[in-house]
Specification:
five-stranded antiparallel β-sheet, about 35% helix, single chain, alpha+beta, about 575 residues, elongated, 18 helices, 2 domains, 13 strands, Jelly Rolls
Length: about 575
């Protein structure tokens, strides 16, 4: 956004009666009703928050998911090197900048649908809730359904928690802004505890501009999420265990592990299964952030080391812990080892931002947020600028749980909105399809089970393998054909399945289903079957055929195509 556009936009929102994400009353002169922070102090702390994320993810990066359900041995902790601060290619950093860019372009009143379109057009690799959410968006499943448990089996995962740092860094002292940003961006991929994790992290950042006591910062974050949620329960437990064992973080880690790693009742929507040592649920990883903050006692090194040694997502967790702590300290007071090697010209992957530009955009958005919440930007007689921010009582999102979700809204993008999503979803199989069945095209093919053209598979030669994009999005082969008018014609298919699973074959003509058939052990001979679909009714016409590899339960649902041909009978 140009400077003139941003000034016009901030002036406009300042005049609105309604406040985005805010429930503050009109600003009064009483200092008890407002918080003040020097504009340059805000920038100093915000810069430190971004740098903390880079330090935490850089230091913990080599350990990610190497220690699952166990404490990392002290001698396995990597050493800090100043060059590690230059984390310009870390998804823990650049994914949230997609959301920052959307705010820069459209302002705080951007719709969740526009946010979804922007996220759908991102070009970087993703995993878990992010990937499922983006796949849903690209398939036309609009938010908030893209993050709903009906369509996203990773909705309780850590993803928005990893990316929510921005929401507090541009909302100093404004927890409701951080909460509402979660409603706009967190619902693209998460729900329930997965959403609350991001709102909790955002709330801690918002508090860190005015508070240095990490316990109070954690409590401020808790006020941003529903008290009846398991996420809230998890963080309350860590606070209680810290009171019991203030100098032994390993005791707290063990209690946390017993309840939130081993007990299946606290892993009810775990994407890896309740018995797995791999745990990417938001709440246990959020607890590791809090453990670093509480037991780190304000020391940057200790905070990062403890969050890392807790294990699981041990680069993302220390990244958020360090970001929050560094925000309380401020850039100028940080140890030099975290600053001296920073490359100001380094460009964050898949973004238009280097570090100075990132800081500048964050400051502009924070100023807009202050004005939007009935705040002021004042200059005193010495020419010092202050952000004057009305105090807010947090208003959390209502309680929801991934294992007992509310009904999905069944929201879909319109054709006009879909035209704005220009990035094709799924693995590119165009060369394989052109070689196997010239004239056919494929879309929304996932990369599970290594799709492509195989020389031999289950006793047949020259087999095309496809796989659904997600548990809710089928892979589709399509082609327009001219059906002969003088004789009976049929579409001949020879199809098979992975020995460990099955899938549904759906054949459509001009969008109308002609056949649905399960392709699995009960309907095949040695893994293969021949299917013929009569096309005589379309004689003399050109029709658009679709062959759908539809998921049936998300368990080895690769489709094996041995033949696709048009035959006369």
């Amino acid at each position: 956004m140009s400077g003139s556009r941003l000034l016009l936009w901030t002036a406009a929102v300042a005049g609105l009666c309604a406040c985005y994400g805010c429930h503050a009353e009109s600003l009064r002169a009483s200092s008890s009703r407002v918080r003040r922070i020097r504009a340059d102090e805000y920038v100093d702390k915000m810069k430190a928050g971004w740098l903390g994320q880079m330090a935490g993810v850089g230091w913990g990066g080599p350990t990610e998911f190497r220690y699952k359900g166990v404490i990392m041995p002290e001698d396995k902790m990597p050493s800090w090197e100043p060059q590690l601060i230059n984390q310009f290619r870390q998804d823990d950093i650049y994914v949230e900048m997609t959301f920052l860019r959307t705010l820069e372009l459209y302002g705080f009143d951007v719709s969740i649908r526009q946010a979804g379109i922007d996220f759908a057009n991102s070009g970087y690799a993703l995993w878990h809730a992010n990937r499922a959410g983006r796949d849903n968006l690209r398939a036309g499943i609009a938010p908030p359904d893209s993050g709903h448990p009906k369509y996203n089996q990773h909705a309780d995962d850590i993803d928005y928690q990893i990316e929510a740092d921005f929401s507090g860094l541009i909302a100093p002292g404004m927890p409701n802004v951080a909460i509402q940003l979660g409603e706009t961006f967190g619902r693209l991929m998460n729900y329930g505890d997965g959403l609350y994790g991001g709102q909790f992290v955002g709330g801690m950042y918002a508090a860190a501009f005015f508070e240095t006591d990490v316990k109070k910062i954690v409590e401020a974050g808790l006020r941003c999420i529903p008290p009846a949620s398991q996420y809230h329960e998890c963080i309350r437990d860590v606070l209680q265990w810290h009171r019991q064992f203030p100098f032994d973080w390993t005791r707290t880690w063990q209690l946390l592990n017993d309840k939130y790693q081993v007990d299946p009742q606290h892993r009810r929507f775990s994407c890896s299964g309740a018995g797995s040592d791999y745990n990417i649920d938001a709440k246990i990883n959020g607890a590791y952030i809090v453990m670093g903050l509480l037991y780190g006692q304000g020391d940057p090194d200790k905070t990062i080391v403890i969050s890392t040694r807790c294990g699981q997502d041990s680069d993302c967790n220390p990244s958020s812990a360090a970001g929050i702590l560094f925000t309380t300290i401020g850039y100028e007071k940080l140890p030099d080892k975290f600053k001296t090697a920073l490359d100001p010209s380094g460009k964050f992957s898949h973004t238009p931002y280097d570090f100075p530009t990132l800081v500048s955009v964050s400051e502009k958005l924070a100023r807009a947020a202050v004005l939007n919440c009935s705040g002021r930007i004042q200059t005193d007689v010495q020419g010092v600028e202050y952000l004057v921010i009305p105090r807010q009582k947090p208003h959390p999102t209502p309680l929801e749980q991934c294992w007992e979700p509310r009904p999905a809204s069944e929201s879909r993008f319109s054709s006009q909105e879909m035209a704005l999503i220009t990035v094709e979803s799924g693995k590119d199989l165009s060369k394989a399809v052109a070689q196997f069945a010239p004239g056919w095209q494929v879309s929304k093919c996932g990369d599970a089970e290594n799709p492509g053209l195989r020389k031999e598979l289950r006793g047949r030669e020259n087999v095309l393998v496809t796989h659904p994009l997600s548990a809710n999005v089928a892979c589709v082969l399509r082609r327009s054909i001219s059906v002969p008018g003088q004789r009976r014609s049929a579409l001949k298919l020879v199809v098979g399945h992975d020995a460990r699973g099955d899938w549904d074959l759906v054949v459509k003509a001009d969008g109308t289903p002609l056949l649905r058939k399960s392709i699995g052990p009960e309907t095949t001979n040695l893994g293969w079957t021949e299917v013929r679909v009569d096309l005589t009714r379309f004689a003399g016409r050109t029709v658009r055929l679709e062959l759908v590899n539809e998921p049936t339960g998300w368990h080895y649902e690769a489709a094996f195509w041995g033949e696709i041909s048009l035959v006369s009978e």
